[in-house]
Each structure stands twice: as C-alpha cells, then as structure tokens.
Amino acid sequence: MDINKNSTAKPATYTVRQVVDAMLSEGSIRTNTRTVDQLRSGSWDTEVTGVVTTMFPTIDLINKTIKAGANMIIAHETPFFNNNDQTDWLKDDEVFNYKMDLLNKHKIAIHRFHDNWHGHQPDGIIWGCLLKMGWDKYYDPKVRNMITLPEPMLLADIVKKAKQVMDIPSVRVVGDLKQPIRTVMFCLGFTGIGNISKTKPDLVMNGETSETQNVEEIRDGKTIGEKVNLLTLGHSVSEEPGMVWCAKWLEPKLPGLKITSIPSGNPFTFV
Length: 271
Known about the structure:
alpha/beta; Udp-n-acetylmuramoylalanyl-d-glutamate--2,6- Diaminopimelate Ligase, Chain: A, domain 1; 2 domains; 5-stranded mixed beta sheet; 19% strand; globular
C-alpha cells in the first residue's frame, strides 16, 4: 500500500509499519539505526485502528488508548522505566508484567518517537513548547534551541505564562523574578544544559537536570552578578506540548486515520 505523500491514494487502513514509515518520510528527520526509536510492543503488521501520541505510555494512558478505540501509541519516552527500554531486569516486576499483559491482551503497539523527533527541523519538542508559549514566530533555525524576544519580559511574567498555558501548578526558579528576559534557551525534558558560560542566555527553560551541576552554577553566578536564570518546568510537562503538536503534524501524512493526543499528565502531586 503506497502512502507516499505525492500519491493521490488515500487508503482506509494502515499497518503499524506504514504509520512509522510516514513518520520518517521527511528529509528533515534523521533516520539513525542506533536509536531508541523502536517498536516496543505489538506487531509491525497490525492494522491500526487509531493512533495516540503522548509523552509517557503509562498504564493509565494505555487504558485511555483502549477506551478511545486506538491500538497504536506513539510515545516520546520509554514504557519500561529506562531510556534504552531494557526489560531483562524487569522480568519479575509486578508493574512491568501487568503493563505487558495489558498491551498483549489488547494488541497495543508502542513505537517510540524520541531521537527522530528531536532531529526534526525544527526540533519537534521545542517547537511544541514555542507554540504553547506563543513564541514560534521568534524561532531561528540557525539557533535551534534559543530565541530572542522582541521586547523584554519580566521573569515573573514568563513563569506565570508558562504555568498557565502548560497547566503546571508549580515550577522551580533559580534567579531574579524581577529581571527582564530577552534570550531564552530551551533544554526541555531531562537534559544537561551545556556550557552556559559561552551562550549566557537570560533564561534557561528546562524540564529537569542534575541539581549538582547547572543549578548550582546558576545559583553561584547570580551571587557574582551573572544574568542567567533557570526555570524548571518538570520532565513530562515540558515535553508534552511537542507530542500534542506531533498529532497535528502526523494527520496530513495519514489521511483517514484517527490521530489523537492524550497527555500522560503531571506525575507529581504538589503538597
């Protein structure tokens, strides 16, 4: 079944393999054989009844997928609690076995879309965040992870906006809430921030990182008058907007197939 984007055919059904082929059809996405972007459950030949995009394929998310009548999940992150999706260490784990039984019973295919989504031009996760913040028009493809705002915004106002548009009840900040911000660097998800002494953005917006590294560098920097601030949103919620956009991005590539974004949600209760 030909699903080439130049084809006029609009097949009524797709297999899991055809959905993944459509995901990787753009030249802007790098196809790297050494990648975590693999089929983690299900079969390549399964006929897809519907697709759900999400951040983490949790048990709750799998149940929502079943309820929605879908049988394929495109997940940015691992279903198996480790980045490389290794499962040998989980063979006697009750949670893992429950999840696998659920996936097998309902023939749910999970395919990760991590490395290739970050490899998209623009980075699919950063672009989703930019859309949420209303900053997409400031994106410069030559500077993949940093934007310059046309007018300064107080850090306090950026924090308020981020909490509102991403529905985050609480964030963490290292810095001066009264400082005007022009340059924003995005290090979403779980990632190192890199050498901020070279780029010196006004604000680093990230998901989570080691508290012994850049967190302390930024704190010490503020003490000696540096202008770099840190806004930590949380791993899952910082990257989820990119998977919301993923559903919209996929729709024209797979005409006739129901594609839905279902957020896996914030794992934390703030008390």
